[in-house]
Design a protein that fits this description.
With 143 residues, the protein is mainly α. It has eight helices and no strands. The longest helix is centred in the last third of the chain and has 22 residues.
């Protein structure tokens, strides 16, 4: 199972962006990372400065978004959609997309619910519960 450290995950984002900037080829997971990064120009300057941002912390109480978490959640959602796991996620994404007309906005709706499920799991010290995820999504869809 792939279980990168915080530094490994961040290095993947920094290295992928560096390769893109240098017009070097990317492959495999780097291509997926690049797709997500290109949708987020607000992070491009940060990704160009690994020496400054590799060890940065983004405590929620300061109100700043952790760009690495944000990008990683996009990657997780892309993976979930590609394999329809948990089963039914493709259908719910399609419903959110139909409502918003914007793939990125639909992903952000999914992301809010995925983050809610993860938070509940951590708070309750239980395994992630797809029911929590889907309940949140169904409320957003109006189902």
């Amino acid at each position: 199972m792939f279980n990168p450290s915080r530094e490994d995950a961040r290095r993947l984002f920094f290295d992928t962006w560096r390769k893109y900037q240098a017009q070097e080829p990317v492959a495999g997971i780097e291509a997926m990372v690049l797709e997500v990064v290109l949708q987020h120009p607000e992070y491009h300057a940060m990704l160009s400065q690994p020496e400054r941002y590799m060890d940065s912390d983004y405590p929620p109480e300061l109100g700043s978004t952790n760009p690495f978490l944000h990008l990683s959640l996009h990657l997780a959602i892309n993976e979930q959609y590609s394999i329809d796991q948990p089963p039914g996620i493709k259908q719910r994404y399609s419903a959110l997309l139909a409502q918003s007309g914007d793939p990125h906005a639909a992903q952000h709706a999914l992301m809010e619910c995925l983050a809610e499920m993860i938070w509940q799991s951590q708070r309750q010290q239980t395994s992630p519960d797809a029911g929590i995820y889907f309940d949140c999504l169904d409320r957003k869809i109006g189902a």
